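User: Show me a protein chain along with its predicted structure.
Assistant: Here is one chain, sequence first, then structure tokens.
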Amino acid sequence: MASAQPASTLSTPSPREERVGFLLVFLSALTWSFGGAIGRFVENADAWTTVFWRSAWAAAFLIGFMLLRDGGRGVAGLFRSMGVPGLAVALCFAAASTAFVVALSHTTVANILLMQAGVPLLAALLAFLLFGERVSRSTWAAIAAVIIGVAIMVSDSLDGDVSPIGDGLAVLIAVVFSIATVITRRFAHVRMTPATCLGTVIAAVFAFTQAGSLAVSGSDMGFLFAFGALNLGLGLALFATGARLIPAAYAALLGTFETLLGPVWVWLIHGELPSSRTILGGSVVFAALLVHIGMEFRRQSRPAKPGVTGMPAPN
């Protein structure tokens, strides 16, 4: 992948490249879907220690990936070309990945992932509020459905059944990813891999200042390696490589597998069941997302340009 080119200058992928792109994006969603299940295996009680090691392993993986793909000069150029928008995306990613780890201590994986399903629609709302971008009536209806669905899920915390900290962090994750999506759409030169790599470094540095101790058991370190390098780093590398080979609407559709499969793995492996309100509200959000994606397919049966139109939501 030519890493310094904006999406508009990329050549049209061949049918074989598109098939590879579909596979890579699906594998990225599959990889990310194991995040909650892996996080539940970490026994270390200090969330900041978990954030540090997960972020450090992810940063190491992503730096290695970019060096292998682009070489030293290419990687330096990627970071230099990000500018202020890239830094903003990095800060968003750092906040979201940190909040995900902390939220795992306070709410279910299903609650976190299902709220994130509404990110594309929340991004459309933010783009309208900040930049006056046109929003179709069907998208307005989907945005309203997302707000209703999230409200149903958050209502668990109002009754004291679920920690308001967990729900608040889940909403925060969705909001910051929506902001990152708007930034990447407005500034085409912002490249996902270096921006998110910088985000993992920022998260690691901040967690280092907050953690009581960085010492973890051998088994925890193994799970933290998988949580950071494989779940976060490898998933992002797969998405960044594959999403530029297929239309953005297809990438968004394949990305829904993370939301679908994530709660399933936690249920099968850890026996964690979401509340009835999480299921109900999450179903409303997920249905709104699918309808929105369906409208995109109808609007343009085959988008002219492949590429990433926004941030994925790896946690």
